[in-house]
Amino acid sequence: MDTNKITVQVKDVVLEKLTHKPAALDMSDTLTDLGLDDLDKIEIVMKLEEAFMIEISDNDADQLLSVGDMVSYLEKSVE
Q1: 38 lies in a domain?
Q2: Is 37 a catalytic residue?
Q3: 49 in a domain, yes or no?
Q4: Residue 48 needs a FRET pair 20 to 30 A away by CA distance; which of 23, 25, 54, 56 works?
Q5: pTM here?
Q6: Looking at the domain assignment, is residue 22 inside a domain?
Q7: What is the CATH number of the domain that holds 55?
Q8: Given the residues 12, 33, 37, 62, the one annotated as active site
């Protein structure tokens, strides 16, 4: 799958959870920096699993700290 498409989808899912939307969402932005908590992260992971029709293990989900981490993980997991 195209990296740009993955990036756009990840950013859309993250932006849905934000009450205060930044002017731009950078790949280095962490969920914590964006004001999201553990429940938000779980909901984001679930939405990504649904959107990309994959299952993300709890161990892998724990490693997804930033927008870039999510994009990189999905690039490797989605064909």
Answers
A1: yes
A2: yes
A3: yes
A4: 23
A5: 0.93
A6: no
A7: 1.10.1200.10
A8: 37
